[in-house]
Design brief:
There is one protein chain. This protein is an alpha/beta fold. It folds into 3 domains: 6-142, no CATH class; 148-290; 301-371, no CATH class. The protein contains 10 helices and 5 strands. It has a 5-stranded mixed beta sheet with strand order 1-2-4-5-3. β4 and β5 (363-367) form a beta hairpin. α1 runs antiparallel to α2 and α6 (119-142) packs antiparallel against α9. The two termini are 53 Å apart.
Length: 372
């Protein structure tokens, strides 16, 4: 049996048509609630008001100013109580997710008493918490340079070549070594070259000196005393050994310095990889929980229906499916760096954020990375 009169059915017919055309227009549900209250359908009126608030929480101030609702205070209060409880649960969930994300990035967690907040304050808190998660994630993603690990690995390879004396500066290295490290290596090579030069000079001086003593001794004494070549050889041998020991010490010190730099680079790689793991974990939490499970009123970003070029939008499975079913083309660019290990989006399962990088009449291109 139809619960509505002919006049009511006629009104509902036009409201239904309006809902099909503009399903996200808060004012429509606001007027629908008034229509339902006018015909004493309080339950339907409450549902319409909740729908209006889900789209635009500021509708509360419109209700307060509208004299029509003065005689329906009890209905409005019931809606407010129901809405507040729902908002409070959402706020506690988002607050918990925010603190979990802060914990991932080793930041101080927040504490707030939500019970005393008004509906509007709860709504503002939820939206600001959503944005704080978004900003925290964006800031950490912005700190990621996709080439950092490759650069550090290249530096380690160069350092190992230096330690093995096979490094040739700027001949085939894609990533030049850091200036300070190169100075350390250059100082080592300069000292070694000086020692080698001294060794060669001393060897030549030894040969000349020994030949001269033999020649002088033979002329003056007709023979060279045995102690002359022995003393000369021992003296020069001692000096030569000392030079070799100095060379060994210089090399050992240089290797120790290079080893320290190498270890520092390894620590930097480990630190970056820990950051990548944190980002991956926080990103999964944000998109599969906060973005996917928060109602539209708590997300201060445009929907896919209202997307414009350059805007960051929230794409829900419903909006994605509807957009495609209408014959539109929607391309999602998975442009996150591979080092972050972020999986391709499951658009029909989870909501996600994306930036509109191209938009035409019946097609759109979305970038996931550029949304952050």
């Amino acid at each position: 049996m139809n619960r509505f009169s002919d006049k009511e059915n006629e009104g509902l017919k036009y409201i239904g048509l309006a809902e099909e055309i503009t399903p996200n227009f808060a004012r429509l549900y606001y007027e629908k609630a008034k229509f339902m209250l006018n015909f004493s359908h309080n339950d339907e009126a409450k549902k319409a008001l909740i729908q209006a608030m889900n789209i635009r929480m500021e509708i509360l101030s419109d209700i307060a100013k509208d004299p029509f609702f003065l005689e329906y205070k009890s209905v409005i209060n019931e809606v407010k109580v129901e809405m507040k409880e729902h908002l409070k649960k959402s706020c506690y969930a988002i607050a918990s997710q925010t603190n979990t994300m802060k914990k991932i990035f080793d930041e101080k967690e927040n504490t707030i008493a939500l019970d005393r907040l008004s509906i509007y304050a709860l709504w503002k808190y939820a939206r600001s918490s959503f944005m704080s998660q978004y900003k925290l994630l964006s800031e950490n993603i912005a700190n990621v340079n996709t080439d950092d690990v490759d650069i550090l690995k290249s530096h380690i390879e160069s350092i190992e070549e230096m330690m093995n004396d096979t490094y040739v500066a700027d001949t085939y290295h894609d990533v030049p070594i850091e200036e300070e490290t190169l100075k350390t290596y250059t100082r080592y090579k300069t000292k070694v070259a000086a020692i080698d030069s001294s060794s060669k000079a001393m060897a030549l001086f030894f040969i000349i000196s020994l030949g001269f003593l033999i020649m002088v001794g033979t002329k003056l004494l007709n023979e060279v005393p045995l102690w002359v070549p022995i003393v000369t050889t021992v003296t020069f041998a001692g000096l030569w050994i000392r030079l070799k020991m100095n060379k060994t010490k210089v090399r050992e010190n240089s290797i120790l310095n290079l080893e320290a730099v190498k270890e520092e680079k390894k620590q930097e790689i480990a630190s970056l990889q820990r950051l990548y793991t944190k980002i991956e974990k926080a990103f999964t939490l944000f998109e599969q929980t906060t973005v996917s499970k928060s109602s539209s009123k708590l997300v201060p970003l445009k929907s896919l229906n209202n997307a414009s070029y350059g805007s960051v939008v929230r794409v829900t499975p419903y909006a994605y499916k509807k957009y495609v079913e209408q014959g539109n083309s929607l391309k999602i660019v998975e442009d996150f760096s591979k080092c972050l290990n972020i999986e391709s989006t499951e658009a029909e399962t989870y909501s996600f954020l994306a930036k509109v990088i191209d938009k035409k009449y019946n097609s759109m291109v979305l970038s996931r990375f550029k949304a952050y």
